[in-house]
Amino acid sequence: MILPPFLKPHDKVGLLSTSSFTEDSYIQEAVKILESWKLKPVLGKTIGARQGSMAGSDKLRKQDLQDMLDDEEIKAIFQATGGYGIVRIIDQVDFSKFKYKPKWVVGYSDTTFMHNHLQGRLSTGSMHGTMAADLEAGYHAQSWESLRKALFGEKLEYSMQPHPLNRTGTASGMLVGGTISILCNAKGTMSEVNSNGKIMFLEEVGEKHFRLDSYLISLKHAGKFDYVRGLIVGQLIEMEDDDPPFGKTPEEIVFDAVKEFDFPVAFGFKAGHGAVNKALILGGLVHLRVDAQGTTFSFET
């Protein structure tokens, strides 16, 4: 797996949206944060554009991404928000220049399509991290500081408290994954996740309990857990129980889907759609340990 060059002060970075529309006030706040890191933000044509719920037409969003990918002065591309839209354009994007001069693509949620496209098709790492739209809930230092450290190549390691559903063990491997529903929807596409021999990360927001179960069982039937080396479970938030109740918590639903396997499982990592969204290097080599004292994992860069 190829990791793009880490950022340096005074690098130019792009800010765009291949998905939903984002309010300008959050964009301007994100620009200030990036400038405080001594980066030079360049706003894409999708910033301020709108067509329905998306940041402009498919044509505009595709071309904005293409221009940022091809511009050799742009060293990283920050998604402004998630929502919906990447799946409509991803198969039209030409990655031929990017392949030989890769750069960091940063985001989460709908960006899961992009992350897994980059890892699966181009063997290139990317960054799961906070976005401008998250600033609606305020500035969270843990989220942005972890992203800064990851992008500038500083040591990235995390620890979590024990969780009753954890399964102990150790594992090393490249990290892949993202939002569960999008991983499921990407099956059979060019952006399908390749989890064989990898450590997988999963998170989700705003789903019914039965639907979360259906996504995970679909991934299981597709063999996505068969050769996984370890599982890190992020935030499962704003879930709505069924009527009558499904009978399991979101965490129990995840554990039930992988209970027959023997890889280590770690619950409780603060990444995903919650208030704190710590950065992850997707495609990066991660070392995972889950024991009675809790979970630790670190990236080798």
UniProtKB/TrEMBL annotation:
Cross-referenced Gene3D superfamilies: Class I glutamine amidotransferase-like, LD-carboxypeptidase A C-terminal domain-like
Keyword Cell membrane recorded: no
Where does the LD-carboxypeptidase N-terminal domain lie?
A: 13-129
Alphabetized UniProt keyword annotations? Carboxypeptidase, Hydrolase, Protease, Serine protease
Highest rank taxon of the organism: Bacteria
Q: Which residues form a coiled coil?
A: none
Which residues belong to any copy of the LD-carboxypeptidase C-terminal domain? 172-288
Q: Which family does it belong to?
A: Belongs to the peptidase S66 family.
Protein name as it appears in the record = LD-carboxypeptidase
**Organism of derivation:** Nibribacter koreensis
